[in-house]
Amino acid sequence: MSAHPVNTTQPEEPLLPPEPLPMHVRGISMEQRNAQEEWEAVEDIQSVLLGRSAGPVPLISFNEALQFFQTTDLSECRKKIQATVRRHGLAALLHFLFGPPRLQQQLQGERDLALAIAQCGLDDNQAVHMRILQTIYKKLTCSRLGCPRYGAHWEELGFQGADPGTDLRGTGMLGLMQMLYFVMDSQTLPLALEIFRLSQHETQNFPFCIMSVNITRLVLQALREECLSRECNRRQQVIAVLNDLYAAAFLQLYRVWKSQHKTIADSGFLLKELEFSTKKKPKQLLKSFETYVSRSLMSAADSIQHPSPLPISSSQAGKEINFTGICDLQVELEGEARLI
Predict the structure, then answer these.
(1) Is the pLDDT of residue 20 over 80?
(2) Crossing angle for the helix pair 208-224 and 172-184, nearest 10 degrees?
(3) What distance in Å separates the CA atoms of residue 322 and residue 339, rounded to the nearest whole number?
(4) Which of 114, 175, 251, 295 is the most buried (most CB within 10 A)?
């Protein structure tokens, strides 16, 4: 028998990862490397959720999101809307004689659009819906990193569970749209961040997003009961009035909550008081919000004209960038705050 041929080739050595370079040679810290890996992982998650190639999901403005709903078929949602509260008997007569004016006909289409959006649920297959959700997360956390569609991170923002869609009953996508307006408008973003910071307080904490959805619900009730018709007619706008009243109500809640050291146990009572204000005195709420915005703009302009350098302590000088930290912005209070 012939001998088996001898294999003279050397066995291939297993490929080993290169030795890590020293920290001073790499020029990048482990924290930064971990953040980069996390960012790449998030991009992969987002590409799966949105059916797109890997890459960061761009922020979406309120106007872009609104244009999407204006051009989308919402016929099924429109079938569910109830434009105004039905009144009967004496209540209908009193409302006719002494109630607010009716919304002008040319504004009823915009009102119905807002109510249809409120009947529209969060859809995982709609890229715009997912962008709205991601934008809210990024702006509130001051992070450029996105996040998975489901997870405990939504509870940290103030939703009840891992799926924000389950908390939108009664407000639908309008609940998220008003949050989007709050964080994407340069005049309201500092207020939104300050309220979010208060919601994380050790003793005064509250679920920010759930509170926001409740305020949207109050605004919708005021719209259906025609309490906002006079203001809408005056401004010839509906959705802008809804957004301003939402921000005004949140501002009022924030002032009372912070100055009077309220806790989650007080939330039910405060929301009832806020419901009264949105229905009976919306003009007063809006005026207070307008004053806040004006003072904020004046304060910002003064800061630009007379900037003051911020000292950096030695302990801060060597710190890495915190991608997921909450912006620590302050909002000036106008004296003692009370619910109207």
Answers:
(1) no
(2) 110
(3) 37
(4) 175
- pLDDT exceeds cutoff 70 at 44: no
CA distances from 109 to 70, 96, 103, 270 (A): 11, 22, 10, 32
DSSP letter (8 states) at residue 19: P
A 10 A CB-CB count for 140 gives 25
d(C-alpha 304, C-alpha 187), whole Å: 16
This prediction has a pTM of 0.73
CB contact set of 243 (below 8 Å; sequence gap of 6+): 62, 178, 181
pLDDT tens for 124-145 read 999 999 999 999 999 999 998 8
The answer for 226, left when phi > 0, alpha when psi is -120 to 50, beta otherwise, is left
pLDDT at 324 over 70: no
| Per-residue model confidence (pLDDT) at position 89 | 63
Distance CA 13, CA 72 (A): 59
Are 256 and 262 in contact by the 8 Å Cβ rule? The answer is: yes
Residue of 238, 115, 251, 133 lying closest to 170 (CA atoms): 115
Burial class (CB in 10 A: 0-12, 13-18, 19+), 292: buried
Report the distance separating Cα 248 and Cα 171, nearest Å: 18
Q: What is d(CA 141, CA 323) in angstroms, rounded to the nearest whole number?
A: 8
Helices (H), the chain: 23-26, 30-50, 62-71, 75-78, 89-98, 108-118, 127-141, 153-157, 172-184, 189-199, 208-224, 229-235, 239-259, 267-280, 282-305, 314-317
Can you give the pLDDT at residue 146?
87
Task: Give the integer Cα–Cα distance in Å for 301 and 142.
Answer: 23
Cα angle 17, 22, 28 (rounded to 5 degrees) comes to 95
Rounded-to-integer distance, Cα 251 and Cα 257, Å: 10
Spatial neighbors of 315 by CB under 8 A, at least 6 apart, are none
Q: How confident is the model at residue 330 (pLDDT cuts 50, 70, 90)?
A: very low
Is 118 buried (19+), middle (13-18) or exposed (0-12) by CB count in 10 A?
A: buried
